[in-house]
Amino acid sequence: MPSTSNWLSTPPPPSRPATKTTASTNASSSLTVALRTHLTSRHLPPNDAFLAHILSSLNHSLPLPSLKASAQYRALHSDLKTSLLTTQSNTLPRDIADGRTAFRSLTSEVTVQVLDQLDISRSLWSQIENIKAAERGETQKGREIVRVVPGEVEGADGGSATATSTTAAGEGEGKGPMKLLLEDGNGTRVWGFEMAVGNETAVAGGKLGSLEIGAKLLLKGPDVARGVVMLEEGKVVVLGGKVEEWAKIWREGRKEALKAGLPPLDDENTVMVDD
After folding, report:
1. How far is 192 from 184, CA to CA, in rounded Å?
2. Which DSSP string corresponds to 206-221?
3. Residue ranges of the chain with pLDDT lower than 50?
């Protein structure tokens, strides 16, 4: 009698050739590694959730350089607290803003984002007046007041152009030194001060005076004195970017924030500020 174990046993399934799904998975894995490596080399190492979000929204049929550029753009325009893979070496010390520490130096490179900025070279009053002038549709050219009408500004080609530059928006180009509120990927915040004095070359090529809110900076081991980061030439690199929602809220509340920073005045010396 034949053994029942032979005819009851299930034969092994035949081997199958590699499917398109397997090839697609390998391509996706390769792209994941390429984008992670690229962003890390740009001091924007992504966490898994952010990288997965990028991959799900990209057109994978595009050339790899285009995909890298798109991923970098999104990282620069993101909130570091939700996009950055944080480690002890790429974040600020938790107590960095403690003014009781006289002096220290950061020992590693840290990527931060700008939450607020103030041009120390201009008074609060002058900045408020600039915003009010822009609200009236005016901007200043040397000593001449020029009224800016959207759609009627003559462009370089002789045609019309809309005044949308920072100067026309009333903020003006920051001359500096600049005071910046910085935040790392853990949400730790500290003020930074641009250490450019007199006729010295401005830090980072003068770019600190024209940053957008949410812009990313790389701190390369700067000194910290009494809880303030010293932004010196060679110790800070502008990576770029912005967070549009933050920038919009900052612009809309800028005038009131500047007014709140004015010192209190006695009733006899109170100066009325028009809204």
Report:
1. 12
2. GGGGGPPTT-EEEEES
3. 7, 153-173
Separation between Cα atoms, residue 160 and residue 178, nearest integer Å = 34
pLDDT in tens, 168-185: 344 444 567 889 999 999
**Range 158-164 contact pairs with CB under 8 angstroms and sequence separation of 24 or more:** 163/139
Q: Return the SS3 of 66.
A: helix
Structure tokens at 56: 């799900």
Task: State the CB neighbour count (10 A cutoff) for residue 79.
Answer: 16
**Per-residue pLDDT, 25:** 66
Q: Which helix or strand (DSSP H or E) is residue 236 part of?
A: strand 236-240
CA atoms within 13 A on the CB side of 141: 7
Half-sphere exposure of 198 (CA within 13 A, CB side): 2
Q: Which helix (H) or strand (E) holds 233?
A: none
The conformation of residue 200, written as its DSSP 8-state character, comes to S
Helix, strand or coil for residue 262? coil
Q: What's the confidence (pLDDT) of residue 263? A: 81
Q: Which of 251, 170, 162 is nearest to 212 (CA)?
A: 251
CA distance 109 to 218: 7
